[in-house]
Specification:
Blueprint lengths: L5 H6 L4 H4 L5 E8 L4 H14 L1 E7 L8 H7 L8 E4 L2 H10 L3 E5 L6 E2 L11 E6 L7 H6 L2 E4 L11 H17 L2
Parallel strand pairs: 1-2, 1-6, 2-3, 4-6, 4-7, 5-7
Keywords: Methyltransferase, Transferase
InterPro entries: Alpha/beta_knot_MTases (IPR029028), rRNA_MeTrfase_TrmH (IPR004441), SpoU_MeTrfase (IPR001537), tRNA_m1G_MTases_N (IPR029026)
GO cellular component, one term: cytosol
Length: 179
């Protein structure tokens, strides 16, 4: 597998011969109304880092091509399959019908600590992250198979959306590698 640095990623577009060599994992990222373009770009970098199958960008938000997403993504938005969807609820229902496990990353009375996530992970899996202010919509949370949250020990109530996603994605990878 070839590797590209940030400089090369910013100016290299994938060609079928290289794009098809990426062995993708059955992990999908679902962005529920994530509005910060730098978060979206960072989520593309995360998806590339783990060779995610796809990103779904849902709701009224920016999507590639976008110069701010490109800057934060360091060009990885060219290498990660993605799709724009208008409605997260409809998408999650569709993914569930295809047998996909839905993990929502959100602070909720129904949340379970991320540390026990390993026993609850099945593949394929979609990891849903939400809007930076309002979080994941209640309707999407109601559809989730598991809601997980990260402990917050300081004065801040929440971690950045891409940072939270990274912790959960790597926890999922850890649990599937143990099988």
């Amino acid at each position: 597998m070839f590797k590209l640095g940030a400089k090369d990623l910013r100016r290299t577009r994938p060609i079928p011969e290289t794009y098809s060599t990426i062995k993708r994992k059955p992990i999908y990222l679902v962005l529920d109304r994530v509005i910060d373009t730098y978060n979206i770009g960072s989520l593309f970098r995360l998806a590339d880092a783990i060779a995610a199958e796809k990103i779904y960008i849902c709701g009224d938000t920016e999507y590639p091509p976008n110069s701010r997403i490109h800057k934060a993504a360091v060009g990885t938005e060219e290498w990660v399959p993605w799709e724009k969807k208008e409605n997260t609820i409809d998408l999650v229902k569709e993914l569930k019908q295809k047998g996909m496990q839905i993990i929502a990353v959100e602070q909720s009375s129904l949340s379970t600590p991320y540390s026990v996530l390993g026993a609850k992970v099945g593949l394929p899996v979609a990891i849903v992250v939400g809007n930076e202010t309002d979080g994941i919509s209640k309707e999407v949370l109601d559809l989730a198979d598991v809601i997980v949250e990260l402990p917050m020990f300081g004065v801040n109530k929440s971690l950045n959306v891409w940072g939270s996603a990274a912790v959960i994605v790597y926890k999922v990878l850890e649990s599937i590698q143990e099988e």
